[in-house]
Amino acid sequence: MSTGTRPSLASFVRYVPRVAVATVAALALSACGGGSEKTESKPSGEASASKSAAFPVTVEHKYGSTTIDAEPKKVVTLGLSDQDAVLALGIKPVGAVDWFKETPYGKWPWTKDKWGSTKPEIVGERDEYNIEKIAALKPDLVIAQYSGMKKEQYDTLSKFTKVVAQPKDLPDYGASWQVMTRQIGKSLGKSAETEKLITDIDARFKAVRDKHPEFATKTIAVADSFEAGKYSAFTKTDPKAIFFSELGFKLKPEIDTLAKPGWNVAELSAEKLNVLDVDRLVWVTSSTEANERIKAEPLYKKLKVNQEKRDLFVPYQDPDIGAAFSFNTVLSIPYAIDEVEPLIAAVK
Asked: Which pTM was predicted?
């Protein structure tokens, strides 16, 4: 894929290749264990006892269940946005995956302070993992929530570390941020802290809904265009659509019916753009060129949402608004709400 215009985080699921796990030498690495975390409100001994009491924990996932015996110290995240929840819970992953070779760690405004000067080792791109690099980090836990991890990858990684794969009974890349955050929090022995994070975010969304009850009467769609004549609309399982739904907007069910099974995006030709004729249309694009190309499309000009100026073009980066609601994590959501609320409320 060209690196000129990169699709946003959640939108590239359709491009993820189905690759076999790289062949690796036999490894015999043992998981690290134990330890305590600093807790200002408790004496160190009490904090250690409290932390130890959280383990062992057993986390169910797509490929069965994983029991974690002691507090993880070295964590590798293989989900595309998993690092945010881990950071929010006070742990800096030692390894993480890249997407489209952007290596943005420390760049995003909602994680810059969390990473500080420490950056993770890049151990793969999207769902292609470098098993040897992961093994070299000697992690005691690998987390892959917002991912398309395959069974053979899970099996290979499980030979030398604990692995919590994506949530069960849900499509890959189809779990809500709440589900994935709880999975991560439980894996780290921090369920109570996790619930506080989720409650605080839920309160932020409710505050917007209370402030803008008119949102509940409006249908919204989120879309992108990666090349001329080709458009994408995101389904109800995509983080971007979920974000606007939690702001109070109604999603358009027809978009879900147009998506291929297991995909979180419906691909549209120009002739199908009428599905985007909604009360509010949010374009999240990676370039000014893409915006101008969309606006110049003759069939798009015929839509009422365009004629009545109810469409909103939001940059993915610089400022990082689209990236924030594409991640849709406990760290990025507050930033996204602060940036998006005034923009979408101004559309009449």
From this structure: 0.84
Question: Distance between CA 113 and CA 108 in Å, rounded?
Answer: 9
Measure the CA–CA gap between 309 and 348, rounded to whole angstroms. Answer: 8
pLDDT at 203 over 50: yes
- Rounded CA separation 269/261 (Å): 18
Q: How far apart are CA 11 and CA 13, in angstroms?
A: 6
CA separation, residue 134 to residues 29, 100, 104, 322, 342 (Å): 11, 19, 19, 30, 42
pLDDT above 70: residue 20: no
**Mean local confidence (pLDDT), 214-240:** 95
134/13 Cα distance (integer angstroms): 22
Q: In angstroms, rounded to a whole number, what is the distance separating the alpha carbons of residues 95 and 124?
A: 9
Residue 245: both structure tokens together: 């739904």
Q: Which residue has the tokens 């200002």?
A: 40
**For the chain, what's the residue count?**
348
Instruction: Quickly list DSSP for 122-173.
Output: EEEETTEE-HHHHHHT--SEEE-SSS---HHHHHHHHTTS-EE-SPTTS-TT
Measured CA to CA, the distance from residue 243 to residue 333 in angstroms comes to: 8
Q: Are 327 and 296 in contact (CB under 8 A)?
A: no
Nearest to 93 by CA among 37, 128, 27, 137: 137
What does the mean pLDDT of the chain come to? 86
Helix (H) or strand (E) holding 95: strand 95-98
Per-residue confidence (pLDDT) for residue 228, from 0 to 100: 87
Which phi and psi angles does 102 have, rounded to 5°? -95, -20
Q: State the DSSP H helix or E strand holding residue 203, giving kind and residue range, or none if neither.
A: helix 191-211
Dihedrals φ, ψ of 226, to 5°? Answer: -95, -20
| pLDDT band, residue 45 (cuts 50/70/90) | very low
Helices (H), 212-296: 239-246, 253-258, 288-296
Q: Which residues of 214-251 are buried (b: 16+ CB within 10 A; e: fewer)?
A: ebeebebbbbbbbeeeebbbbbebbbbbbbbbbbbbbb
**Measured torsion, CA atoms of residues 276, 279, 209, 333, in degrees rounded to the nearest 10:** 30
